[in-house]
């Protein structure tokens, strides 16, 4: 039988005492009740017109929102200030740009010991040490390429190629030699040297820094023309690393030109009276150049020209070679003499001088 007070079917489901074990885990303590976001209105409060059954209680986030917003703003400000400080005080800031060195140049005229010989270009080349030289850019050969400590094979090859391009543009381009063009050379000059380059072209001066002939070989168009476009060339290129951020290339080349007075015919044979007439003459220029390349130069195909030393003849010692080379024509004589025995066809270290005496050896061919 059912116990006293209990229905015959037992305690109904859902009433207290029936399934108390199912709700033991749910504890509605005071803190739980206070944390409830919804609270029931009292009976008196619900009697009013348009009264709602429950009201919302302010949550934890709303009560503390302004305080946490202020903390967030302070954290953002601190992070921003730290970023600025590290940017200013960063221990690995990139190095300051290196100042480009100005070009130093020297042009030494070589005076002939007697009368300048004349003849046809082929004969002049055959009777000179330039007989075995190659023609044009083929005479500017590159050395064996190998990487350095801080530069790859490709970077070394790029530096040598830029140096060769500069030599071709400044020593072999007919537009530069006899037409007054400068752009083929200018586009290969480091931008930080362009001010010096432009002044050297517009107002050349023999001051060691602003001679146009320190940058290139050129003749006065109204006076001198090339007898033939072919120029004979022989020389060497060498490279070395000048620190972790620079490559240096040195060149030493001899250029042999056949020239004649401008405005005259192409007859390059000497007259029957022994005078040269319209005959061509051989003009020789030995150029030693010192290039430097940083990584920007290699990327932009530019060069820094640091040193330029040239010996050129036949010229008079009194010739002003700052603006243009001043070759003596066939049959001409020098108006001054300098130290004897300066040979532009010799290799090795060049001897600096104000003027030299042109001395050439036997044909190298």
**Percent helix range:** 25-40%
What is the H/E string? HEHEHEHEHHHHHEEEEHEE
In this structure, how is the largest beta sheet organized?
8 strands, mixed
What is the count of helical runs? 10
Quaternary structure type: single chain
**Protein structure class:** alpha+beta
CA distance, first residue to last residue: 140 Å
**% residues in beta strands:** 15-25%
The radius of gyration over CA amounts to: 45 Å
Model regions low in confidence, pLDDT < 50 over at least 5 residues: 267-276
- Mean model confidence by pLDDT: 81
Tell the overall outline. elongated
In total, how many beta strands?
10
What does this structure look like?
The model is unreliable at 267-276 (pLDDT under 50). This protein has helices at residues 30-35, 43-46, 60-88, 121-126, 153-171, 174-178, 183-186, 194-202, 212-215, 295-300, and strands spanning 38-40, 54-56, 104-111, 134-135, 224-226, 232-241, 247-261, 281-293, 304-313, 356-357. The longest helix is centred in the first third of the chain and has 29 residues, at 60-88. It contains 10 helices and 10 strands. With 365 residues, the protein is of the alpha+beta class. The strands form 2 sheets. Strands 3, 4, 5, 6, 7, 8, 9 and 10 form an 8-stranded mixed β-sheet that branches. Strands 1-2 form a two-stranded antiparallel ribbon.
